[in-house]
Amino acid sequence: MDREAILKKFEPNLSNILYIMHDLQDTNPERYLSKEDVEACADYLNVPYSYVHSVASFYTMFSLKPRGRNIIRLCESPPCHLMGAHSLLDYLKGSLKVDVGGTTKDGMFTLELTSCLGACGVAPAMMLNEEMFGNLTPEKVDAILDKRRKEI
Ligand code: FES
To answer: Which residue among 83, 114, 116 is best mutated to probe the pocket of ligand 1, counting the most ligand atoms within 8 A of its Cβ?
Structure first.
């Protein structure tokens, strides 16, 4: 779906800004809001470019720079931290050979951190795109990422 078609799905009300931004980002193959996306959203909603840009900067679920085809968002809030998220992060950084915010060389995964995902009961937890995973171990993470690699 092109940018124009995405915008037309929504009434040009400011209350739709997050929906529009989500759709624009999700349909971008590099899973980010490009300058053109931000401009189009601002024009459509009749707000300044800086307004949309500041919304995109405020929420961690939006990115203003290109990312991989899959976004790993590991929870770094205290319950997950206490249950081993920190060592899981070290494991992910080592196995993917990226730092936080980085994208693997093959463009498959971007590694990000997030605050509580609301899944503290199964800490440590992460999201892979829209899907939640808990009770993570390095072995489970490997299985999740391998499965995703085979799906693409
Ligand atoms: S602290 Fe990690 S899901 Fe709540």
So the answer is: 116
Cα separations in angstroms, 88 against 15, 61, 84, 127: 37, 21, 6, 13
55-103 pLDDT per residue, tens:
999 998 899 999 999 999 999 999 999 999 999 999 999 999 999 999 9
* Surface-to-core class of residue 60, CB atoms within 10 Å of its CB (0-12 exposed, 13-18 middle, 19+ buried): exposed
Put simply, whether the predicted model's pTM sits higher than 0.70 gets the answer yes
Q: What is the largest CA-CA distance in the chain?
A: 49
- Ligand 1 neighbours by CB, cut-off 6 Å: 75, 77, 79-80, 116-117, 119-120, 123, 125
